[in-house]
Write a structure and sequence with these properties.
The complex is a heterodimer.
Chain A (H helix, E strand, L loop, with lengths): L2 H18 L4 H4 L6 E10 L2 E14 L4 E5 L6 H9 L7 E8 L2 E2 L8 E4 L13 H10 L6 H14 L5 H6 L7 H14 L4 E5 L7 H14 L4 E6 L2 H7 L2 E6 L2 E7 H6 L4 H8 L39 H5 L5 E3 L2 E3 L7
Parallel strand pairs in A: 3-8, 3-9, 6-7, 7-8
Antiparallel strand pairs in A: 1-2, 1-4, 4-5, 9-10, 10-12, 11-12
Helix pairs in contact in A: 4-5, 4-7, 5-7
Chain B lengths: L1 H32 L3 H6 L5 H11 L5 H14 L12 H36 L4 H15 L2 H15 L11 H31 L2 H8 L4 H38 L5 H11 L2 H29 L9
Helix pairs in contact in B: 1-12, 5-6, 5-8, 5-10, 5-12, 6-8, 7-8, 8-10, 9-10, 10-11, 10-12, 11-12
Chain lengths: 338, 311
Amino acid sequence: MDQTTSHALEAPYLHTFEHANAGCPAMTAGGPPLLSITGLTVVLPDRPETRLLDDVQFELRKGEFFALVGESGSGKSVLCSTIMGVASAELRCLGDIHIEGRPLADVDRRRRAMIYQQPSLYLNPVRNIGFQLRETVQMIGGLSKKEASQRAADLLCDVGIDDPKETMRKYPHEMSGGMNQRVMIAMALAMKPKLLIADEPTSALDVTTQKQILDLLERLRSDMAILFVTHDLGVALQRSDRIGVLYAGQLVEIGRADLVARTPLHPYTRALFSAVPPLSGHPRRLHSPAGSLPEPTQRQAGCNFASRCSGTLDICRHTRPALQGIPLQVVACHNLEA
Amino acid sequence: MRGNGQKVFASKIARALVTLVLMVTSVFILMRCAGDPVTVLLGPDATPDMRAAYTGELGLDRPMLAQYLAYLHNIVRGSLGVSYVYRQDALGVVLSHLSLTLILTCSALTLAAVTGVAGGIAAAVFPSSFIGRACTIGAVVGLCVPSFFLAIVLMLVFSIQLNWLPTGGAENWRSLVLPAVTMAAASSAVLARYTRVAVREALDSRYVLAAFARGIPFSRILIHHVMPNAAVPILTILGLLIGGAVTGSTVVETVFSWPGIGNLFITSVGNRDIPVVQAIVLLAGTAMIMTNLAVDLGYAWLDPRSKSSET
């Protein structure tokens, strides 16, 4: 960390640093992290300069609720599918992903599970819920059909479905989005995962259902880590321990949720949070960052945000900033005084 | 849900009946336009007296509407008239030729279904491998080569050069091989193309991605997730092929002198044997309508979503 940056961080954030550890179990728990990603770069094989993800680096600990925010096209979905091991075969991944200290290739697929934004698209339309859930349960092995049915029913009860037997006879098109999302969660839980990736699981649901699903995830998190991808900054702030901000394939800021929300360090994070209308107080003019996210093919050597930033320095145009800062909040920006 | 299903079923039956009536009527009109059967049957040297007597005997001198009503009345009673040439019940004549056509079409369609679906799956699952490419190219070739040309090429190679199989007739299973292969080629190619598209689409779907992410093995995904979804378009094509096969065998039957109803149809049209032609068209049309109905019912069985919506 160079001199200017540490100076810039000093005054307002030092205070938080000293007192924050207690409130954040994720930062203090020992042992290897549940998920550790280092230098993850995803490129198109024929054009290595086109980076969909660029040197992504973060860790998740057991019981942690990590919110990943960023606009469409920032690489959130690529990150999720890479961790799940279902990324398109046409992409090349560099860097390391470790789960519980073991490289991704050696890790049992059941260690991680994923739920999606539009659950109805991710359920087979011509198979009933019971078939799909039972099939997933039987992946654990050693269960008879009857035991699998029983376990499937138990799982549906766990996710708050009152009549599991009836639900198992239904097809996805006969159920609401919220119910399908519960089924997806039950399917994810069937594998007893250590890591749950939730890719905007509540975006397509109405507010009441959204709250129920979030409460359900909240209840489940003690046994696993949740990587929660969302557009909804309010949800990210309310529910998560930490927030990571992804911009143009790069993690530009990671920090404790309240710090990132109240004192965002990266100009992009600041812009994101000021683009949310306040619920109370006087309505104010909303600011959204001018310009648009650079396409993967148009990203240059310098900071990806330089073209939209108000505090661009000379260095921003040719050197990519690295993540730096105090452990509770790190940021990739050259101009922290802006 | 169930009541709705019955309503949909009833409307499909009603539609099938309307189609049948339209078909019967157009056959009647077309055959009356096709030329005078008396001239063909008696030859150009017949005297006007003979012609008048024969026309009266066949009932062709009555008004068109009366002929039409009599014709409809007979169909409802199950009689399709007496063949002008064979002097027997027309339906009986057709049915006596039907079994050979059924043997030919059933073996051709079985061959087409097995090779077409298997080839389509292979082309979809391994698009860039040798097998996948071979299936794709095979399908294009099969679709482009007309059956009369393929028939002659096969005859040249297997009957004349190699002398393995007969060029025509219907004596034993060896005479069946070439016509069945010829007939299967085009159907197999059509099926392979549609299967490839349907399987590819299902493989690219989100629910298959999610199944992969859950760690379900590929073979299981293919059998339990991909195929049930791909089955609907495949079934549609198969239904069309089955319905069309009864008449589609005409060319192949003629080239290989296979004495089925396709052959009978050609000779009967030439002879203006109106009752036999009517019987064949009615039979083929009914087969088409019945297979379409069976396919519609198959949808409901394969895809639970179609039960609740009118298609």
